[in-house]
From TrEMBL, chain A:
Native organism: Capsicum annuum
The EC number(s) this enzyme carries: 1.3.1.83
Lineage of source species: Eukaryota, Viridiplantae, Streptophyta, Embryophyta, Tracheophyta
GO BP annotation list: chlorophyll biosynthetic process; photosynthesis
Purpose of the protein: Catalyzes the reduction of geranylgeranyl diphosphate to phytyl diphosphate, providing phytol for both tocopherol and chlorophyll synthesis.
PANTHER family: GERANYLGERANYL DIPHOSPHATE REDUCTASE
Protein name according to UniProt: Geranylgeranyl diphosphate reductase, chloroplastic
Catalytic activity field: phytyl diphosphate + 3 NADP(+) = geranylgeranyl diphosphate + 3 NADPH + 3 H(+)
Pathway: Porphyrin-containing compound metabolism; chlorophyll biosynthesis; Cofactor biosynthesis; tocopherol biosynthesis
Gene3D superfamilies documented for this protein: FAD/NAD(P)-binding domain (3.50.50.60)
């Protein structure tokens, strides 16, 4: 250690100045050291991103583009993740996703109530607007490749442990297995983007979150039935398909994914799946199940998202909206914001950062930008997904064109759509009256059930 | 018909049917509880359980309309197990006799025409009798909760509650409840006015001018509106807690700032 000190003293006589220095050879593998918290580091910041999905790849890309030495860990680059695969238009723009990756452009959404009232969403879409459906393996590998070409080092490895040192001045040690040998890597900053069962989150004791389980079967349909789903996706609500979420039929490249999800009735997921298959029966007759998959979906952020110089992004942090269960865009966006936060706070890798920097540049920015969106969707889920009566009201409301336009605008562009005050007021009145009517119906239905039970 | 669908995951059925025996038995005790919402959750599952090819007799239950659905599911599973081409008519044991047409019993009512209620059939003295439309729709929704139907493109449902005019709802549901609540408010108001008058000597007109009395009046009205049953107090408390729960989950990351500063580098 003393040897390195003198070596560097000879090389950089201006070391004691408080301003950061530019280093000529950034490949310095040495252990960094600093005297005071505001002193410049001698070597560049080293960052590791654990998890190479949309969140990890975007974070790695932002870090590498900012000049930070980045290592991206991904344990299985080729797996097809169980996922809806729908991304909003703004993601195509913001993340420059080439259009040839898109399998399908969904321009029509059909939502079906428990009493099979069907409402078609999509009349208000302009010709260039659609929901892009992609295969996760295609999207993920594209984003990973782009991160690599920005300068990140992609490591096909399984991270087994993340050692958090007791002193805050020491680097984090990542234990991983690559090509069947155990290795270690010391880094200054870690971004945990390893999904719902995040190991990074466990190492920093980030706390747990409640999860929903999403279960889906991929079914290959005969030609004529597949034609119906050409650019149509369906959403089914009802107690028979999910007590607190919705069931779906999403078209994929050459098959459809029929699935459902739930938070509170995880044990009954199989019977809920049978429920959705029964509801869609005639439309998937003759189809063959080619794959069955399930995955947990976080319901809310973890209690701790940043600790020390470790930040969680994407599913690991719990950034999945309620009501629609959308996570890909928020994962990629949070990865990017976190990467940019680190680049900014460390001034291109010259300075060491601390927890306050991460909280200020990443968490505060994220919460300010997206908390209202998440909260609004939470309220929608609480109000409309609770019981069959509320679901009927939801479907009735969705028939209104103004509601459709606002919904699509908010979903596709992730911005609160600019509405007309008068139409907003009408929408609120319609909401209240639909809810009142359907709840009255719901109460009557329950009352008649009571009568039958008491008769028996 | 849907044979391929049932037969392709061969691993599913054997595993499922063995577990279904247990679940069907487990479900029956819960049906005897007098909780209507539980029965709705339970009943679709009981029906789904029947499709595994287990006891059809077991599915035929207390509720008379469920029995028909039980028969439906049995014959579907028979089709699957026979491995037939799906187009042959069902060969079964329908317990409560309604004739099966394509093997699925849809909601049938002479007044339910083309996916909506035929209002002309609800006429009484030349005017549509909305109360019976509401009753019919309630019965249909209850039937559907117990026997979820597959949605079909050929026979779409077109009925929604906005077809029934607002005054029909008012007359039937709002007015009786309003009468009840106004009655309560009047009784409480009269007694409180008398009580305050006897204690302080301030008459009714003078009470209305006093700020404290006006506050009491506001509290009394709000109480009568919000608390209609004893359970409502608990419900309101839970509502307040629930509405702030999600916010608390998001703010949790920020709480750490105050408690621990040791991790800061």
């Amino acid at each position: 250690m003393a040897a390195t000190q003198t070596y560097l003293a000879d090389l950089h006589p201006l070391r004691c100045l408080p301003t950061p220095l530019k280093i000529q050879n950034p490949q310095n593998q040495c252990h960094y050291f600093k005297q005071k918290s505001t002193n410049p580091v001698i070597c560049k910041l080293k960052a590791a991103v654990i998890g190479g999905g949309p969140a990890g790849s975007s974070a790695a890309e932002a870090l590498a583009a900012g000049g930070i030495e980045t290592y991206l860990f991904e344990r299985s680059p080729a797996t097809a993740k169980p996922c809806g695969g729908a991304i909003p238009l703004c993601m195509l723009d913001e993340f420059s996703i080439p259009l040839h990756l898109i399998d399908r452009r969904v321009t029509q959404m059909r939502i079906v109530s428990p009493s099979n009232l069907v409402v078609d969403f999509g009349k208000t879409l302009k010709p260039h607007e659609f929901i892009a459906m992609l295969r996760r393996e295609v999207l993920d590998s594209f984003l990973r490749q782009r991160a690599e070409s920005s300068g990140a080092t992609l490591l096909k490895a399984l991270v087994t442990n993340l050692v958090v040192p007791t002193s805050s001045r020491e680097p984090y040690l990542i234990h991983y297995i690559m090509d069947n040998c155990r290795r270690q890597l010391a880094v200054d900053v870690v971004i945990g983007a390893d999904g719902a069962n995040s190991r990074v989150a466990k190492s920093i004791k980030a706390g747990n979150y409640s999860t929903a389980i999403a279960f889906q079967e991929r079914i290959k349909l005969p030609e004529d039935k597949m034609g119906y789903y050409e650019n149509l996706a369906e959403m089914y609500v009802g107690n028979d398909v999910s007590p607190d979420f919705y069931a779906w039929v999403f078209p994929k490249c050459d098959h459809v994914a029929v699935g459902t999800g739930t938070v509170c009735s995880k044990a009954d997921i199989k019977s809920l799946q049978r429920g959705i298959r029964a509801r869609v029966r005639s439309k998937i007759e003759g189809g063959k199940v080619i794959k069955v998959e399930a995955h947990p979906i976080p319901e809310h952020p973890r209690p701790i998202r940043v600790r020390g110089r470790i930040a969680l992004v994407g599913d690991a942090a719990g950034y999945v909206t309620k009501c629609s269960g959308e996570g890909i865009y928020f994962a990629a966006k949070s990865g990017r914001i976190c990467g940019e936060a680190i680049v900014k706070a460390s001034e291109g890798g010259e300075k060491i950062i601390n927890e306050d920097d991460l909280k200020r540049e990443y968490l505060r920015k994220w919460d300010d930008k997206y908390f209202t969106t998440f909260k609004f969707l939470d309220v929608l889920q609480k109000v409309f997904y609770g019981n069959n009566a509320a679901r009927e009201a939801l479907v009735e409301l969705c028939g209104d064109e103004y509601v459709q336009r606002m919904t699509f605008d908010s979903y596709l562009y992730k911005k609160l759509a600019s509405g007309n005050r008068w139409e907003d007021a009408k929408m609120v009145m319609n909401t209240i009256s639909s809810l009142v009517r359907c709840n009255i119906m719901g109460r009557e239905v329950e009352a008649s059930a009571q009568k039958i039970l008491s008769r028996v | 018909m849907s044979m391929a669908l049932f037969s392709s995951p061969p691993l599913h059925f054997p595993a499922l049917s063995s577990s279904k025996h247990h679940t069907t038995h487990k479900l029956y005790p819960s049906l005897t509880f007098n909780k209507p919402h539980l029965s709705f959750l339970v009943s679709p599952k009981a029906i789904d359980n029947g499709s595994g090819g287990t006891t059809s007799g077991g599915v035929a239950v207390e509720k008379e309309d469920k029995a028909e659905a039980g028969g439906v599911k049995v014959e579907e599973s028979n089709e699957a197990s026979l491995g037939s081409n799906g187009s042959s008519p069902p060969v079964v044991v329908a317990s409560a006799g309604a004739p099966m047409t394509e093997g699925v019993k849809m909601f049938q009512d002479s007044r339910w025409v083309g996916g909506t209620w035929d209002l002309k059939q609800f006429q009484k003295d030349g005017v549509t009798h909305w109360d019976s439309v509401i009753d019919a729709e309630v019965r249909r929704r209850k039937w559907l909760e117990d026997n979820p139907e597959s949605s079909s493109n050929e026979e779409p449902v077109l009925f929604d509650t906005s077809i029934i005019p607002w005054w029909a709802w008012m007359k039937r549901f709002h007015l009786p409840e309003a009468e009840l609540l106004n009655g309560r408010a009047a009784m409480v108001g009269f007694f409180m006015a008398y009580f305050v008058d006897s204690l302080t000597g301030v008459g009714l007109v003078d009470q209305m001018g006093n700020f404290f009395c006006k506050t009491l009046l506001f509290v009394a009205v709000a109480g009568v509106l919000l608390i209609r049953k004893n359970e409502d107090i608990e419900t309101l408390k839970k509502l307040v807690e629930e509405s702030t729960f999600y916010d608390k989950q998001w703010q949790a990351s920020w709480q750490d700032e105050n408690s621990s500063s040791s991790k800061d580098s």
